[in-house]
């Protein structure tokens, strides 16, 4: 009996030690690169843990929405200095995450972090350093511009905003014309997402500097024309946005930028809801775009589209989404004779790291 | 005695009625134009009162920093629905205001409002409709662009960001060259301020559409190179920023935009700290700029500058600042033979409405 108890105690110790080892958090936390200037928190460590510190001395409860899935985020504990602190229970996926702070039942942002439009609100953002972060880093290479334009939209009776990435050199050689990728954000985001969260401009600058992609323009505009409501996606009507994009924005861009204004030099892509929009608009309007890209945004079946219209179908998602669905669709499209390419982002979910990597993979295949 | 008491009571009633009349708040509140999409609060009414509504059901205290001067902002009252509401004690000045929310001793932003970089943090913003708001409204006129550039800065060992306003038509007539205004933000703000808070691009679009100003470029960059700290302005060293501006940004702009690259076609202006920077740099570096503009940013004495270097000195401030100082300086400069123009913004203080109006007055005088 004594031996049995001893054995049990030993087993417990071993298990305990193993757990404590695997949970050991390295104290190499640094401010997130998405912090407001001069702000020390939130921080991230080399393992991907995130640590928060928020001042609210008289609050009863402070939680951060970021944390391991399904556990309601991270509960902060109040220190004697009036600051609430806490660390995620485990490492977070690499890349960019939206989050917010619950203070006594109200939804606020972390005063230390910069804000990014997502979930139909300006949210806090945090960056978990990724092993491949070099491809979207700000480097000492020639930089293109991100140009804010206000284009007339008779159908919505206003001037609408878009951002246009123009590659380095665009403003030097005035005889050169460029193909264009129309690139859409996801639900609850807006036309700022692909630059601010996605670093689309830096991805292109770096690819171009390495000679890995042809230079092209990227046009990013707001993909919703309906009133914005949670749950509104179910009744989403593509027509108003399709009109803005195809009948208003494309002619404006072709008139005001040096584009090659034909189907063969025009691509459309989008993430999540933007993929859904891409899929619907490319099916509704064959002959406008020749390269289609759905990033975590659904798939095509061979019957959806016609081979004479499409030079490339690019389908991608994170390995934590539904990679099998992408692979099956790409296989079916290939069997039917399409130039289809699938890409699975390893270790990422329905988040911007998946889409940054997707753009990095997509760009060299275009035009 | 009875009569005396009656008279007193009457007097009290009259005073009471007058007070209650003058304090009568019109219930024509509408969402602020600076709200996040779809958000109903904060609201403003036609008298300039601001009303806030913030959810924080378990909080003990919610205050908004905006309110009448010196009274610590506006204290919100908790309703049974868990939302805290409150209205400013009086009307606010016309135009844009920064504010934030104190929730149980912590500083947060209003989840209903968009964020603007000011006070060395991303703050909430609210817009009190101004009687003259048409001059910075988004209208159905040709729109210029706001182009984000990343320019190499060897002195700070990074790529720095600037925004360049290019007027409508800039990208059409490739033979035309343009003068440039370098326009600086205030302390605690950054290179986004003049577009986001100031609507500099819309002010120019509207002026150009009405034929009231020559088209020119506006370059807006970050005016601080030091570590950002409250109180850091006292030890502010202009040299690092002067190097970035004069030795790095100006040559980059002259190489990458179609500018008239000489002193006569180059202006510098700035608001508040940006005015201080303008004053110092124009004095340190005669021969670089020919038009100087200090918006709530100090004054020149005739001995500070030389008549052969300067075609225009523009000095402005709000009527609630120190207008006498501006008027005296302009008078002294004029007596000394300078082309000096003063402008006082009626009914505004050290805030963006003063600077929007100042730009509107300044632009037609330039070049």
List the helices and strands and how they pair.
The structure is a homodimer of 367-residue chains.
Chain A: H1 2-22, E1 30-31, E2 43-44, E3 50-55, E4 62-64, E5 74-75, E6 77-78, E7 83-87, E8 95-99, E9 101-103, E10 106-108, E11 115-118, E12 121-128, E13 145-153, E14 158-166, E15 180-184, H2 193-196, H3 200-209, E16 217-221, H4 239-256, E17 266-271, H5 273-284, E18 291-295, E19 312-318, H6 323-335, E20 340-345, H7 352-362
Parallel strand pairs in A: 15-16, 15-17, 17-18, 18-19, 19-20
Antiparallel strand pairs in A: 1-2, 2-3, 3-7, 4-5, 4-9, 6-7, 8-12, 9-10, 11-12, 13-14, 14-16
Region (Disordered) (chains A, B): 24-44
Keywords (chains A, B): Hydrolase, Signal
Protein name (chains A, B): Alpha/beta hydrolase-fold protein
Give an overview in words.
Chains A, B: It holds the Pfam family Esterase. Chains A, B: Keywords: Hydrolase, Signal. Chains A, B: It comes from Euzebyella saccharophila. Chains A, B: Residues 24-44 are annotated as: Disordered. Chains A, B: Residues 1-17 form the signal peptide. The structure is a homodimer of 367-residue chains. Chain A has seven helices and 20 strands. Chain A has two domains: 30-129, Sandwich (Immunoglobulin-like); 135-365, Alpha/Beta hydrolase fold, catalytic domain (Rossmann fold). The model of chain A is unreliable at 1-21 (pLDDT under 50). In chain A, the strands form four sheets. The first copy, chain A, has an eight-stranded mixed β-sheet with strand order 13-14-16-15-17-18-19-20, sandwiched between helices. A five-stranded antiparallel β-sheet of chain A has the order 1-2-3-7-6, with no helix packed on it. A four-stranded antiparallel β-sheet of chain A has the order 5-4-9-10, with no helix packed on it. Chain A starts with a helix and ends in a 5-residue tail after the last helix. The radius of gyration of chain A is 23 Å and the shape is globular. Chain A is 24% helix and 26% strand. In chain A, a hairpin with a 4-residue loop joins strand 6 (77-78) and strand 7 (83-87). By secondary structure, chain A is an alpha+beta fold. Chains A and B meet through strand 10 and strand 13 of A and strand 10 and strand 13 of B.
